[in-house]
Amino acid sequence: MENTLFIYNSLTRKKEKFNPITPGHVGLYVCGPTVYGDAHLGHARPAITFDLLYRYLLHLGFKVRYVRNITDVGHLENDADEGEDKILKRARIESLEPMEIVQYYTNSYHHNMRQLNTLDPGIEPLASGHIIEQQLFIDRILKSGYAYEVNGSVYFDVKKYDKKYNYGKLSGRKLDDLISNTRDLEGQGEKKNPFDFALWKKATSGHIMHWPSKWSEGYPGWHLECSTMSTKYLGEEFDIHGGGLDLLFPHHECEIAQSTAANGKGAVHYWMHNNMITLNGQKMGKSLGNAVTLNDFFAGTHPLLEKAYSPMTVRFFILQAHYRSTLDFSNQALQASEKGLERLLNGVDDIEKIRPSGKTSIDLTSFEKKLYEAMNDDMNSPVMISHLFEGVKTIRQIIAGKETINQADLERLHGLYHAFVFDILGLQKIEKEGKQKDLSSDLIDTILNIRLKAKENKDFSTSDLIRDSLNKLGIEIKDKKDGFEWEVK
RNA sequence: GGUCGGUUGGCCGAGUGGCUAGGCAGCGGUCUGCAAAACCGCGUACGGCGGUUCGAAUCCGCCACCGACCUCCA
Fold first, then answer.
1. Which residues constitute the domain of residue A456?
2. Distance CA A118, CA A66 (A)
3. Reduced to 3 states, what is the DSSP secondary structure of residue A423?
4. pLDDT per residue over A219-278, tens digit each?
5. Where a domain ends, among A226, A258, A274?
């Protein structure tokens, strides 16, 4: 199939036809989590959004190098020279080594992401594992003249950069506006300008996570790891960079500035940003204190949750909205997704029930075209899903004999559903393992309750039949005064 | 305050100058011993006020409200 994938590029604010730098190959970089707490619903959104992209690119036949970082260097809680870093703070609260915190929450993140059936990135680099590369990157920026050293720290000279390049081209900001709007923050003394950002920061005495450098014992700046690691693994120019919309400014703006200062050009061809999950119309965020963790969702252990929601329900819920729209969380919406998902998956199962006939009365070519058109239009998963639902209706009509399909087309239909539902949307059949475990014992209880009823009615032939039948299956029944007990021998 | 975005039926959520998005819930019917499932049918929604147009929810203007970013955040 001809590739006509269009992607909305945050940089140009337009949908653009996707043309990779190297035909057939895609370099994809996505901003991963800072591992200082359990992943919440907000983390699931970019993970699933870019998993969908990854899966779709693979489906289209691209060879994709997918890189997603883990931020394990603690960054300060605010843009002041003072302040504690998040990982350090967490380590202090839990009385653990910073690296124990990092390891614990990295494992937890991986576990949650696998529950959501996201494919693992090909490379998952750690910021702490690329300190030398980050220092070399700073050297290049210093050499080009867009950074300056003060007291062992190195800062990016935004004003100087803006004179030659345009600082703010991604976020649509103008430096003049930034100057007048920058808040007064403590400890900005070292910087030439308040909007300058750190490339290397000298560690204060209480700061445990630090590394030697020619400037000072310190640690890399907040935005540097992504520029450095994307360059290392994907090159000075690569195709797609993704992340949450909240990272657009300043994080991604600074990445562009760093790359441009170091290499004379912005590294990224297509910037993609997923929108936020909202709760009662407000962004769900760790710092806002309204984030519901994924573990809470899967276990149903949060006051806001009426029940537990399976990872697939959460995944489907997210895929039913377009990634650039905000998505409002509510129990009602989750439950609608849960039922919708069941309906869709039942529909896929029902394909097996179809008996082919000699002729095909439905338009499979048009169906297939609609699916690809929706995905090619900036990954419009909700529209694609709506077509799949329409298709389920058609499947039922074939089973009911109102439409017909021949053997070859049945295989095609089967193939389309498997490709789009399982390979591209990444949905899985709902695991009923937990239910099944309890099912057999519940079944025996049910049968024995029927036997009790029969005994009450003095229908002893039925009650004996039940007892003898169960005995044959190795189940011993012990009648009690007020009921029964049973045991598997 | 600056920049950007949004406001769609009971809920969620697409879309877009004229042609049924879809899901969930609801209502009526078929089926059924009852129920469930399945199937058929139903709602005529696009924040307000103007304007452009043969025709606007869709384009333009104004207003209202909500949100995001401007500080770490997915």
1. 435-488
2. 12
3. helix
4. 999 899 999 999 999 999 999 999 999 999 999 999 999 999 999 999 999 999 999 999
5. A274
ipTM of the complex: 0.94
What nucleotides of chain B have any atom within 7 angstroms of a protein Cβ? 1-5, 10-15, 21-25, 38-40, 66-74
Separation between Cα atoms, residue A187 and residue A398, nearest integer Å: 71
Give the dihedral of Cα atoms A258, A262, A263, A264; nearest 10 deg.
Answer: 80
Helix axes A407-417, A364-376, angle to 10 degrees: 20
Sequence-distant (≥ 6) Cβ neighbours of residue A14 within 8 angstroms: A8
Amino acid in the structure at residue A20: P
CA of A277 vs C1' of B5, distance in Å?
15
- The distance (Å) linking the CA of A331 with the C1' of B28 is 28
Q: What is the CATH number of the domain that holds A325?
A: 1.20.120.640
For the CA atoms of chain A, what is the radius of gyration? Answer: 28
Per the CB < 8 A criterion, the answer to whether A116 and A224 are in contact is: no
Residue A488 DSSP SS3: strand
Indicate whether A442 and A381 sit together in one domain: no
CA atoms within 13 A on the CB side of A52: 29
